[in-house]
Amino acid sequence: QVQxxxxxxxxxxxxxxxxxxxxxxxRTFYRLDMAWFRQAPGKERxxxxxxxxxxxxxxxxxxxxxxxxxxxxxxENTVYLQMNSLKPEDTAVYYCAGNSNIPGGLLPREASYAxxxxxxxxxxxx
Length: 126
Prior knowledge:
This protein has strands at residues 3-7, 10-13, 18-25, 33-39, 46-51, 58-60, 68-73, 78-83, 92-99, 115-116, 120-125. It is globular and about 40 Å long. The N and C termini lie far apart (40 Å). The strands form two sheets. Strands 2, 4, 5, 6, 9, 10 and 11 form a seven-stranded mixed sheet that branches. Strands 1-3-8-7 form a four-stranded antiparallel sheet, with no helix packed on it. With 126 residues, the chain is mainly beta. 33% of the residues are buried.
């Protein structure tokens, strides 16, 4: 079992930055593929970014490419999401998720992830 806990959400003005953190415990973190998803009010949860445990490859949704950066510190069992140039449409609850051996094409899919955090609210004001 893996426990994931997000932190770092809050209220920020448009154009500002936030860094989310997701700490993991309970299993060897460095072998997990990790991702961030988000869910805005009245919308379905959507993929934001993912990080492979092996090789350091990262993947991004088109809507955040060039503004968000996913990174991980395996020695600290933590994955980060640096969010810059935030827009009001980035307002959502952000979730981290993890699992092992996810096929490349399935990284953006919710069903690929067995472990989820409780979410952290990000609100971007205009």
